Amino acid sequence: MSDKKLLEGKVIVVTGAGRGIGRATALLLAESGAKVVVNDIGGGADGSGNDATPAQEVVNEIKAAGGDAVANFDSVTSWEGGQKIVQSAIDTFGRIDGVINNAGNLRDVIFHKMTEEDFDAVLAVHLKGTFNVSRAAAPIFREQGSGTFVNMTSTSGLIGNFGQANYAAAKMGIVGLSKSMALDMQRFGVTSNCIAPFAWSRLIGSIPTDSEEQKARVAKIQQMTPDKIATLAVSLCSDQAKNVTGQIFGVRNNEIFLFSQPRPFRSAHTSEGWTPETVLSRVLPAFEADFYPLSRSADVFSWDPF
Fold first, then answer.
1. Dihedral angle computed from the Cα positions of residues 224, 46, 124 and 231, in that order, rounded to the nearest 10 degrees
2. Where are the domains of the chain?
3. How far apart are CA 252 and CA 160, in angstroms?
4. 292 noted as active-site residue
5. How far is it, in rounded angstroms, from Cα 205 to Cα 280?
6. 132 partner at 20 to 30 Å CA-CA among 67, 125, 281, 302?
7. How far is CA 92 from CA 85, 115, 267, 275, 306, in A?
């Protein structure tokens, strides 16, 4: 029986790997035999500031356990940053086999009070950051005929949430981007999938705990540790998952979900064409029973995961 580790010989970039899900993923990647580029600018939850300590601490932890990793402090928000992050893998380890787009920030505010800066700052990290790093790796993946993208989305976009228009837009944008990457790169042996994680992290550490109900909710979320998400992310980087692409997964404690994707399920047809009056009198009333309610993630995931 071979003692070869699951990801032995692979080099994986993890963005936002200094804390939380990114950190847990980087550690498990290394434990599984991969060499890891630990990217993190060390910013606050809103994306502000810089601190090299978190990324370097993860690298130190990986090396202390016998693995191999390098820290990178470039920002995913710029084209140049994305190029440098990928180049760090090439310069240090001579190749790149996967990108886990995990870097994130939050600027939660109710929509009618959201500023342009609030909106742009979140899309810059989540959506543009996913593009920048993935686009930097794509030509290399094409040339070598293999590669993996794992992109973090959220049920805040897939289902909905209060006060997160910027975050939801970015996370749904990542779904479309990931699917396009899967379609365009499939011929080159490249996969691209999304994960919607449920896990306690500093990005959701600002949830209010003003009532006993809120305290109980936070206590449950705190039990959903980042290593649960890391397990699926690492699995998707394996050659054994090379036929899995274009999918949206969710992880909630010990549950793993496969999400549906939008497809038409009701139709209305008329041979003479529609007018605004007939749309209002015939189409909308016919569809109304199947309209989706304004649900939040917590409304859909209403059962206890423990």
1. -20
2. 11-258
3. 17
4. no
5. 45
6. 67
7. 11, 40, 55, 63, 42
Burial of 292 (0-12, 13-18, 19+ CB in 10 A): exposed
Residue 173: CB atoms within 10 A of its CB come to 18
CA distance 93 to 98: 13
Active-site annotation holder among 167, 198, 200, 249: 167
Would you say 38 and 32 are in contact if contact means Cβ atoms under 8 Å apart? no
How far is 92 from 78, CA to CA, in rounded Å?
Answer: 21
Radius of gyration of the chain (CA): 21
pLDDT the model gives residue 46 = 64
Q: Residue 99 pairs with which residues in a beta bridge?
A: 13, 149
Tokens 């202390």 -> residue: 64
Series of mean pLDDT values for 10-residue runs along the chain (306 residues): 85 97 98 98 74 94 98 98 98 98 96 98 98 98 98 97 96 98 98 91 56 68 85 98 98 95 96 98 97 94 83
DSSP 8-state symbol, 292: P
CB atoms within 10 A of CB 8: 12
Instruction: Report the distance separating Cα 21 and Cα 36, nearest Å.
Output: 14
Parallel, antiparallel, or unpaired: how do β-strands 248-252 and 255-258 relate?
A: antiparallel
